[in-house]
Specification:
Helix content: over 70%
Mean pLDDT: 93
Order of helices and strands: HHHHHHHHHHHHHH
CATH architecture of the largest domain: Alpha Horseshoe
Radius of gyration: 22 Å
CATH topology of the largest domain: Serine Threonine Protein Phosphatase 5, Tetratricopeptide repeat
Shape: flat
Number of domains: 3
Strand content: under 5%
Distance between the termini: 41 Å
CATH superfamily of the largest domain: Tetratricopeptide repeat domain
Low-confidence stretches: 235-239
């Protein structure tokens, strides 16, 4: 801990990071280590952003950092203007259309048509953007366009195998489309990686029940109730 503090005061980033990583490895879950790591990593991030602004203030990266700051503050118009400014100079820069799409959905009321257009533009630049695929799938799912949603979620899960939400959304869409046997595999993947989410167990129980796997369905419903009881909402309901 003293090494990390000393390195931070001397601006020796590499030493500070090594000390923080050692602390987290040797004392996992320790409140003081977690508290100190939070503050020091936040300070390192702040120093990096200041260095970026000082060394390359007109770079797309510096402009994007500023736009993301506007986003975090809920200043949608300022963020939008900054992202569009980036695109004017760098029309093929990945990630910017996706950000614009998220802003359009975050506004009240949400501009779903505009967001869809931005996500589609993002995929023209970066066809492997799993997040843009997912958002297009979610828009289709909410509109009851199951086949479109299934296609989008399937690709998102293929492109990024760690994208857990895509597995759940794919299973939900397949269930809604009546394709219960197809829904089993993605939902099994989801509950294996997210056993504490009641929604995954419920959807998998539905798929099992509709494919004649009664015992498996009952097991998943039991797991769903257990997960619900452990969740903050479930615990509050029990109290």
């Amino acid at each position: 801990m003293a090494t990390a503090r000393c390195a931070m005061s001397l601006d020796e980033t590499e030493t500070a990071v090594e000390a923080l990583l050692l602390l987290k490895r040797e004392f996992p879950g320790d409140p003081e280590v977690l508290y100190t790591s939070t503050h020091f990593f936040s300070e390192l991030a702040s120093r990096s952003s200041q260095e970026l602004a000082a060394r390359a203030p007109t770079s797309p990266q510096a402009q994007q950092l500023e736009a993301e700051a506007f986003e975090s503050q809920g200043k949608w118009d300022d963020a939008t203007a900054q992202y569009k400014k980036i695109l004017e100079a760098n029309p093929k820069l990945p990630g910017i259309h996706y950000r614009l799409g998220r802003i359009l959905l975050a506004k009240s009321p949400a501009d779903e048509a505009g967001a869809t257009k931005e996500f589609e533009e993002e995929l023209k630049i970066d066809p492997e953007n799993a997040s843009a695929e997912f958002m297009l799938g979610e828009t289709a799912r909410q509109a009851g366009q199951w086949e479109e949603a299934i296609t989008r979620f399937s690709k998102a899960s293929r492109v990024d195998e760690s994208f857990l939400e895509a597995y759940l959304a794919l299973g939900m869409s397949l269930n809604s489309a009546g394709k219960f046997s197809d829904a089993v595999a993605p939902l099994q993947s989801y509950v294996k990686l997210q056993p504490g989410d009641p929604a995954g167990h419920y959807q998998l129980a539905t798929a099992y029940a509709r494919t004649g796997r009664k015992q498996d369905a009952e097991r998943e419903m039991t797991l769903q109730r257990e997960a619900m009881a452990k969740s903050p909402q479930g615990a509050q309901t029990q109290r």
